[in-house]
Design goal:
Outer membrane efflux proteins (OEP); 11 helices; 4-stranded antiparallel beta sheet; alpha+beta; elongated; about 475 residues
Length: about 475
């Protein structure tokens, strides 16, 4: 059985060989025509691959679905939204309690000392015992403010549900963007590494030609400048990769392993292919809009609560009471009673009117905010629709440009070997091929992200969409994938 360390070094060895093959393809596939450039290119690529393998150590493969599940399970935003929903749900029985019977009981016992003389009662001088207990039942018959408060509590629950759905969809979008952001950064590192290795081989060839007297200093200096620029881009690409990995790690609360990459797939535009149905879908399903509408109903309910605070309340009360020695030493009283109570606020220092004005202003602010949010949702959905629509043509154009750049590089390489092309032509072709590679990977990953962005803009992004995107991925060949 292979040990993890042996498997890791085997993966590094495979990466080194693949780097050599990439370099071999870049220089035209003919070792005899390249002189010293192939060993130089090989050393650069092998060194980079080996360093990357040693630093990474034991790794495991992760696909989008695994990263998505990890992020959803570990997200503090999800936990916060769920806790908020639990608080909103607890508000409903709290509001309903104002309309239900209230039962209370009381009891007391005491030792008293009295000196009573005269009147119709016998004289008493000394200590005596007293006690009492009672049970009181109060049933609200009408309380307009409490009825409105119950409707407010129900609206808060709807708002909490919409808030949780929005957080879940937003997190799914962020995880998808973060996942493919790492893949994009990895692709940029690969392209930058290949470009630096290829330009280094061209520079080595130009420098050798200058040393033996068949080249010129201008070509050598130009090649050196291109190599320096390519190495600078490689440093920037590696930094961007580390940042992308940190960003995804923050979403999942776990280190980022080796990610599954995209297989070949046909670019797909929006379906339906008109913006109108997507906008209508967003206006119906966008959780952010649902939350805003529920918050508006909460604000309008608060207006009713404040307005009905000046209304009368009616309640039914019943009491059963026993007392001994509370009115007079030795006197026992047992009584049962019932009453209908009417309470009408007359003046509360202006607080009721002020609360109503404040609630109305807050409700108007919610209406204005909802109108602004609807416009924003329309624009965001239309933008996401056009972005996905354009991404299809961009990916096709980028793929064609990449193929043309490769053909141009091979042709220029052969022309240079025959003396029909200059070092500057070769440098330009190499840089163009690298630029086309970066553009292709950007268009490739952007096409997938654009699909998820449109679903999120319309408010219909679900776990099934993540599963569908995950089906486009494949496990790395050199690393055994972790369990699903």
């Amino acid at each position: 059985m292979r040990t993890p360390r042996f498997a890791g070094w085997l993966a590094v060895y495979g990466a080194c060989l693949r780097g050599a093959v990439i370099c071999f393809r870049h220089i035209g596939g003919d070792v005899r025509s390249v002189g010293v450039q192939f060993p130089v290119c090989l050393r650069a690529v092998v060194f980079a691959a080996c360093v990357a393998g040693v630093i990474s150590g034991p790794v495991h493969a992760e696909n989008l679905l695994q990263v998505y599940r990890q992020g959803m399970a570990a997200s503090p935003l999800i936990a916060e939204a769920k806790a908020g929903l639990r608080a909103d749900r607890a508000g409903r029985p709290q509001a309903r309690a104002a309309l239900l019977p209230h039962v209370s009981a009381g009891a007391s016992a005491g030792l008293n000392n009295a000196n009573i003389s005269g009147g119709f009662f016998p004289s008493i001088s000394g200590p005596y015992h007293s006690d009492s207990y009672s049970v009181t039942l109060t049933q609200p018959l009408y309380n307009g403010a409490a009825l409105s408060a119950l409707r407010v509590a129900n609206s808060r629950i709807r708002s909490g549900r919409a808030a949780l759905a929005y957080v879940e969809q937003s997190l799914a979008l962020q995880i998808t963007e973060g996942y493919f952001g790492v893949l994009q950064a990895e692709a940029d590192v690969r392209v930058a590494r290949e470009e630096a290795a290829l330009l280094a081989s061209v520079y080595q060839e130009a420098h050798t030609a200058l040393r033996i007297g068949t080249g010129d200093i201008i070509s050598a200096d130009e090649a050196k400048a291109r190599v320096d620029a390519a190495r600078s881009r490689l440093v920037s690409a590696r930094s961007a990769l580390r940042i992308a990995q940190r960003r995804l790690s923050r979403l999942t609360q776990a280190p980022v392993g080796v990610l599954w990459d995209v297989t070949s797939f046909a670019p797909r535009g929006p379906a339906p292919d008109r913006a109108g149905p997507w906008v209508a879908m967003a206006l119906r399903n966008q959780p952010l809009l649902k939350e805003a509408k529920a918050q508006l109903r909460v604000a309008e309910g608060e207006v009713q609560v404040a307005r009905r605070a000046s209304w009368p309340t009616i309640s039914l009360s019943g009491v059963a009471e026993h007392s001994l020695g509370t009115l007079f030493p030795g006197m026992e009283v047992n009584q049962v009673g019932a009453s209908v109570n009417l309470e009408l606020p007359i003046y509360a220092g202006g607080g009721i009117d002020a609360a109503e004005d404040r609630a109305e202003a807050q409700a108007q602010a919610r209406r204005d905010g909802l109108n602004n949010l609807e416009q924003g949702v329309r624009l965001h959905t239309e933008t996401a629709f056009l972005t996905l629509q354009d991404s299809v043509a961009k990916l096709k154009a980028a793929a064609a440009a990449r193929r043309s750049a490769r053909v141009s590089l091979i042709a220029t390489r052969r022309g240079y070997a025959l003396g029909a092309r200059s070092v500057l032509d070769l440098l330009t072709a190499a840089s163009g091929e690298a630029r086309a590679g970066r553009d292709y990977y950007q268009a490739l990953y952007h096409q997938i992200i654009a699909r998820v962005q449109l679903k999120a803009a319309a408010g219909v992004l679900t776990g099934a969409d993540i599963v569908a995107i995950n089906a486009l991925l494949r496990a790395p060949r050199a690393i055994k994938p972790s369990g699903h």
